[in-house]
Design goal:
6-stranded antiparallel beta sheet, alpha+beta
Length: about 650
């Protein structure tokens, strides 16, 4: 422990980046114009009976909704050599207009435009996540090169340069300490819950934070090959691998569109040449068939359900970034948890004090530790304050690097608090009870503080990360919701992982993992797999898993990488979200079955002339209204 007071830490922001790309801004604008045109056209047609307002509004809707879809349709047709729903939607909208149902065509285009805009918004988080990860890099660092100190941009730092790192600064490159002592917060990279003491010869990782004490360190890797750079590379690989997964919609849309578009001229030819119907009647029935067969209810089935479910989840404090995330959560059967900051609060607290006079030992420890800024020291001082214990007055407090702190009492005796090395230096020894307590605390994964005066040991204290309230119940509820396989992944020590797993009821855990280890394990665990995390070190695993879930108190990188964010840091909501997602998935299947059922029944009747266009439109739009109301039903759900 050291006594230096750190500057304000350059910790990562807790707020996610919501950078809106020009492409997404354009998509939102086009969707808004399509809706505006639809409303204006409908008002002109049904309210004020003005054909100029009606056609002007519908023209805007057709252009705003049809041009982007038409552009995608032409790209798929001529570049990818396939028909898709974009082309079907545009043709169906034009077909509806050709038989006097421009409003129906405008509705088709608006619903389709809305669906595409939501998809663009969800996919935009990939770039935001990598941008947030890069924000952990400082702009540069003070280096000593050829005997001269200078400020260097990050890209200018070379192997062999000596970094001069002050308290509170983020380490700019992987380096090895050559002068000084400090403690470093490595949790953004490794997930280690406790600060790590660094002395001469110790490795420093880029992106970690120097807590207290100035050090000099020789750069051992260029910026492009640093720990943080490797994290960025892992992130990009994970996002790419995830984006290749085909959705159900992508698998059926091209065959369906092809079948409908091919059937329309066949229906026209059959009616006109086979059944000798007039040109007008044949065209009318063919267009009615295309309008009825257009997947309006199909297209809105999933968004109507998922948007309602996402709204219900958001009200309960669970933010889904896309409907695909909701669908994936419904199928998840394995959940992997990070430990530090996810299952725990990443907050040091005194878990146990072994002393004959507990209050007296705490008062002495608080008096000593009040002169230190180390997180363990702050935990001791906080406990004394909470218990109303007044710290013992000490003077000449002095840090002993890598060991602890010592000071002089009013009686002239030397008081101290620190680790076993400091105890040995002071010529003290543990009693059998104290030795047993120390061994037990180490087995549990707690950090220990030995408090003494002169050559006498007064107390042994255990300091550990605090579990989140109700976390054991949350794990149990998640298992009851149908997620049987749960595992903890952590960069912390094996003893710590074992102790935490036992307390919260997890039977499987992996410890001492680097980010690349977590990413590798993602491929070994049975899927569909969800990963719950909060730190920079979790970002690649969050992105690579079938579903990434972040707690809102985590780093912005984790939040950007995740598909779901627990806004109130309450893992107890996760079980409710799983139940909601499963209900939403069932509703989607019901809606799709109903929508396709309507098409299969009404379309043949339209060809046979048994369904006039107005009735076909009513059946078509009635199906749309039904699936929308089925979706709105989920708004009543409570997590």
């Amino acid at each position: 422990m050291t006594t230096s007071t750190p500057a304000s830490f350059a910790a990562p922001s807790r707020q996610p980046h919501f950078n809106v790309s020009p492409e997404l801004r354009f998509a939102v604008t086009m969707t808004g114009l399509t809706l505006l045109g639809l409303l204006v056209g409908a008002a002109g047609q049904y309210l004020i009976n003005n054909p100029f307002v009606m056609w002007g509004g519908y023209l805007v809707a057709y252009l705003a909704g049809g041009i982007p879809a038409g552009r995608e349709a032409l790209h798929s047709l001529f570049v990818e050599r396939k028909l898709d729903v974009d082309l079907l939607m545009v043709v169906a909208a034009l077909g509806a207009a050709s038989i006097g149902q421009a409003a129906d065509g405008a509705i088709l285009l608006f619903l389709f435009s809305l669906s595409n805009t939501l998809q663009d918004w969800a996919m935009g988080r990939t770039k935001n996540a990598i941008s947030a990860l890069m924000d952990l890099n400082p702009a540069g660092a003070t280096v000593r090169r050829d005997g001269r100190e200078r400020w260097c941009e990050l890209g200018e730092i070379q192997i062999g340069d000596v970094l001069i790192v002050k308290p509170g600064e983020r380490i700019a490159a992987d380096a090895r300490v050559t002068l000084g002592h400090t403690a470093v917060d490595e949790s953004p990279i490794t997930g280690e819950s406790l600060p790590i003491d660094k002395t001469v010869g110790a490795e420093l990782a880029s992106g970690t934070i120097n807590l207290n004490g100035s050090v000099e360190a020789e750069v051992v890797r260029p910026a492009g090959d640093s720990t943080l750079a490797r994290l960025v590379a892992l992130m990009e690989q994970a996002q790419t691998a995830k984006s290749r997964t085909e959705t159900i919609t992508e698998r059926w849309e091209s065959p369906y569109a092809t079948v409908v578009i091919v059937l329309v001229p066949l229906v026209f030819a059959l009616l006109h040449y086979g059944f000798k119907l007039s040109l007008d009647v044949s065209w009318y029935r063919a267009m009615t068939f295309m309008v009825v067969a257009s997947p309006c209810a199909v297209v809105i089935s999933t968004p109507a359900v998922m948007l309602s479910a996402m709204a219900a989840a958001a009200r309960g404090g669970v933010l889904f970034k896309s409907s695909a995330a909701m669908d994936t959560l419904a199928r998840v059967n394995t959940v992997a948890f990070d430990k530090t900051g996810t299952l725990t609060q990443a907050k040091m607290t005194v878990a146990r004090i072994v002393a004959d006079d507990e209050a007296g030992a705490l008062a002495l420890a608080a008096g000593l530790e009040s002169h230190s800024e180390h997180p363990i020291a702050r935990a001791v001082v906080t406990l004394a304050r909470e218990r109303g214990v007044s710290p013992v007055a000490v003077r000449n407090a002095q840090a002993v690097p890598g060991m602890g702190i010592e000071a002089t009492l009013d009686s002239g005796e030397l008081a101290w608090a620190g680790n076993l090395r400091l105890m040995t230096r002071e010529g003290a020894s543990l009693s059998p009870i104290q030795d047993a307590a120390l061994r037990e605390l180490n087995t549990e994964g707690s950090s220990t503080v030995i408090v003494g005066v002169g050559n006498r040991v007064l107390a042994v204290m255990g300091v550990a990360d605090t579990l989140r309230p109700g976390i054991a119940e949350a794990i149990s509820s998640l298992r009851a919701a149908g997620v049987e396989h749960q595992v903890m992944l952590t960069g912390d020590k094996m003893e710590v992982a074992q102790a935490v797993a036992a307390q919260i009821g997890l039977s499987e855990y992996r410890a001492e993992l680097l980010p690349e280890d977590k990413l590798r394990i993602m491929g070994e665990l049975p899927g569909p797999l969800a990963m719950v995390g909060d730190g920079v070190n979790d970002a690649p695993a969050l992105a690579r898993a079938d579903l990434g879930i972040a707690v809102a108190s985590g780093t912005d990188v984790a939040i950007e990488s995740a598909d779901v964010v627990l806004m109130k840091n309450d893992l107890g909501k996760l079980a409710g979200a799983v139940k909601l997602a499963k209900d939403a998935r069932r509703t989607v299947f019901l809606n799709l079955a109903f929508a396709f059922g309507v098409i299969l029944i009404i379309a043949p009747l339209a060809v046979a002339g048994k369904i006039p266009l107005p009735l076909g439109v009513i059946a078509h739009e009635g199906g749309t209204v039904f699936v929308v109301f089925m979706g709105l039903r989920l708004l009543r759900h409570r997590l």
